[in-house]
Amino acid sequence: MIRAGVRVGVGRYNEARPLYRSPHFGSVDNPTAERRTIHLGIDLFVEPGTAVKAPLEGVVHVLANNPAPQDYGALVILRHQTSDREEFFTLYGHLGQETLRGLKVGQRISGGQAFGRVGTSRENGGWPPHVHFQIILDLLNLGAAFPGVAYASERAVWTGLSPDPNLLLGIPKDRFPAEERQAQEALEKRRVLLGKNLSLSYERPLKIVRGWMQYLYDDTGRAYLDVYNNVPLVGHSHPRVVRAVREQVALINTNTRYLHDKVIRYAERLTEKLPEPLRVCFFVNSGSEANELALRLARAHTGREDVIVLEHAYHGHTNTLVDISPYKFNGPGGQGKKPWVHVAPLPDDYRGRYRRDDREAGARYAGHVREILERTRGKGRDVALFVAESLPSVGGQIVFPPGYLQEV
Ligand SMILES: Cc1ncc(COP(=O)(O)O)c(C=O)c1O
C-alpha cells in the first residue's frame, strides 16, 4: 500500500480465497477437501487504531472476542431497521480489544458515530490490520458465530443472506479489477476463440487460477493435488524461480546475438552434470524445439533420414515430431506412419513381452531395435536417429529394464 501510495486497501466481496488454513475453515486432515473460501464482507486495510464509524444509526447487538488464529479477534454486530421496520445487521471484525470495553449490548449508535478502532495484528486473529465489514439480512440466531467466509457450494445461500457491502460503502466501481469470468462463460468463450484441437480435461472442466507447491487451486479456492501437470518440476510458483524470472525480465530479455555471462554460467553448470561427450548446449524454449533440433542435428551429422521410435511415444507438436510420435500419428486425426519411421516395441517389463523375471529383458527389447536397423539397411536405407523418452510418459510412465539403453 505504501508503494502504491494508497491509504486504504480493499479486500473484495464474494472473492474466493484459498488462504484460510486454520481448522475452523474446514478439514485440516485433507487439504483437498472443500474448505470455506468465499469472502462475505469487504475488507478495508488501514492503519491500526483508525476509527470505525457506523454507516447508519443502529443498536449494539453482539460484542464478542473470537481470538483463534485467522478469526475475528474483537467483533461488533450492530442492529438496524429499514424505514419499513425490516431488521438487518452490520458486522465489523478484527477490531481493537478496547472497542469491546467501550461498548454495551443495547447501546444506541448514531449514523457516522465512531464506535470502535481497527485492531493490531496481535489482537485481530493475526491478520494485517483491517476491518471486515459485512451486511447480514438474517442473523439466523448465530450471533458472533455468523460466518464471514462460506463454502463455495453454499455460495448462493450465504451471499443471499450477506449482500455486497458496497451497497453501503459506495466504493466507485472503477476501483475494482474487472470481474473474473465464471467457469461456464470461460468455457463458452474458449470454444469460440481457441482452436478446437485443444483438449479440455474432466466432464466439469476446472478453471485453475493459482498454483502453489504441489497444489493447484480452482476459482472457488478449492485445492487439488497436482499429480498430472508436467511443467513445474520444483512445485508451482517456487519463490526462487519466481524471483529469478522476475529479476531477469526486469533486467533484460534479449537473444543470443550478444555476449552475456548468465547463459555461459548456465551452460557451465549444466555440462558439469552431464557425462562426456555432452559438453555443448543449445538453449530452446520447449520440448518440441529441443526434439526438432536433435532430429536436425542427427540428420545433418549422418546424412540419413530414418528414425526409430518406441510404441506410444510422444515427442512434440511440430509436423515432423507428430510424424515420429505413434501416440499422435496413430491417434485421432493421425495420418499413419511415414515410410522413414520405424516403431520398436515399448520396453515395458510389466505388461510387455519380456517381463521383470527375465534378467535379459533389457537386452531382448534392444534386440528388436537391432532387427529394425538390419531390416532397414537391407532395404538400402539407414537410420539417422533412435529417439526415446527417458521415462515414456503417455506410454504409461515406463521405467526401462536394466541395460536397455546401453544395449541400444
Ligand atoms: C515426452 C514429451 N516430449 C516432448 C514434449 C513436447 O514439449 P513442449 O510441449 O514443450 O513442446 C512433451 C510435452 O508434453 C512431452 O511430454
Structure in words:
This protein is α+β, with helices and mostly antiparallel strands and 408 residues long. It folds into 3 domains: 9-175, Glucose Permease (Domain IIA); 183-239, Aspartate Aminotransferase, domain 1 (Alpha-Beta Complex), CATH 3.90.1150.10; 284-407, Type I PLP-dependent aspartate aminotransferase-like (Major domain) (Aspartate Aminotransferase, domain 2, 3-Layer(aba) Sandwich). 24% of the residues lie in helices and 20% in strands. The chain has 11 helices and 17 strands. The protein has helices at 97-101, 155-161, 166-169, 183-193, 239-251, 261-272, 287-302, 319-323, 326-329, 361-378, 404-407, and strands spanning 9-11, 36-39, 42-45, 51-53, 58-66, 73-81, 87-95, 108-109, 114-117, 130-136, 149-151, 208-212, 215-218, 223-225, 306-310, 341-344, 383-386. The protein is elongated, with a radius of gyration of 31 Å. The site of pyridoxal-5'-phosphate has 11 residues, from helix 7. Pyridoxal-5'-phosphate (PLP) binds at residues 230, 286-288, 291, 314-317, 389, 393. One of its GO terms (molecular function) is pyridoxal phosphate binding. This is Aminotransferase class III-fold pyridoxal phosphate-dependent enzyme. It comes from Candidatus Acidiferrum panamense. Belongs to the class-III pyridoxal-phosphate-dependent aminotransferase family. Residues 38-136 form the M23ase beta-sheet core domain.
